[in-house]
Specification:
The complex is a heterodimer of chains A (113) and B (112). Chain A is mainly beta and 113 residues long. Chain A has no helices and eleven strands. Chain B has 112 residues and is an all-beta fold. In chain B, the strands form two sheets. In chain B, strands 2, 4, 5, 9, 10 and 11 form a six-stranded mixed β-sheet that branches. A five-stranded antiparallel β-sheet of chain B has the order 1-3-8-7-6, with no helix packed on it. In chain B, 36% of the residues are buried. The chains are: A mainly beta (113), B mainly beta (112).
């Protein structure tokens, strides 16, 4: 079946703009993760959902970052008042359940000018 | 803080040779490790995993070795091919939600 999809693939924002990044996990996957990957670095955990419940948001760098998964399927990562340091690739991953293999989407590359 | 890291940022090998990518971890309580391959413009792709009750696990052309005594993990790729060129990350799976903690990555370059 289809893998994890993310949209848009590329996003350019002016500093101060709000952005919304979408993740469509693999159908039936309970767990959903967001990671941030700076250039030349490994991905860093942002937040985790189990169904619609956000169980861990300890990795969100500031209160400008907000994630939701209202129906336990599609998730949106929103960044308010974007800053240049928010420029990165944002990766979404899903797994059948907690502790199972995580499947990653292609990521959204965000560039804040 | 505790983290997963890598010794070599770039590894260049000849096509057909074997490759070894190393990783050190610092959390002795970690019990599950994964190697990912990431090609340019793509998300990380699962290669192989190993649990802490094992020392070695083999896949197709890949082997992961775990040395818990020195908290060291390695990925061996046999008969390296041009298609193996990518960045390789080791990751540690921990936490109630099992989020991944990644190292900084090693770039593998395969020379024809």
């Amino acid at each position: 079946g289809a893998g994890v999809s993310q949209s848009p693939r590329y996003k350019v924002a002016k500093r101060g703009q709000d952005v919304a990044l979408r993740c469509d996990p693999i159908s039936g996957h309970v767990s959903l993760f967001w990671y941030q990957q700076a250039l030349g670095q490994g991905p860093e955990f942002l937040t985790y959902f189990q169904n619609e419940a956000q169980l861990d948001k300890s990795g969100l760098p500031s209160d400008r970052f907000f994630a939701e998964r209202p129906e336990g399927s599609v998730s949106t990562l929103k960044i308010q008042r974007t800053q240049q340091e928010d420029s990165a690739v944002y990766l979404c991953a899903s797994s059948f359940s907690s502790g199972n293999e995580q499947f990653f989407g292609p990521g959204t590359r965000l560039t804040v000018l | 803080g505790e983290s997963v890291g890598l010794h070599l940022p770039t590894l260049s090998v000849q096509e057909g040779d074997n490759s070894i990518i190393n990783c050190a971890y610092s959390n002795s309580a970690s019990d599950y490790f994964i190697w990912y391959k990431q090609e340019s413009g793509k998300g990380p792709q699962f290669i192989i995993d190993i649990r802490s009750n094992m020392d070695k696990r083999q896949g197709q052309r890949v082997t992961v070795l775990l040395n818990k005594t020195v908290k060291h993990l390695s990925l061996q790729i046999a008969a390296t091919q041009p298609g193996d060129s990518a960045v390789y990350f080791c990751a540690e799976n921990r936490g109630a939600g099992n989020m991944l903690t990644f190292g900084g990555g090693t770039r593998l370059m395969v020379k024809p």
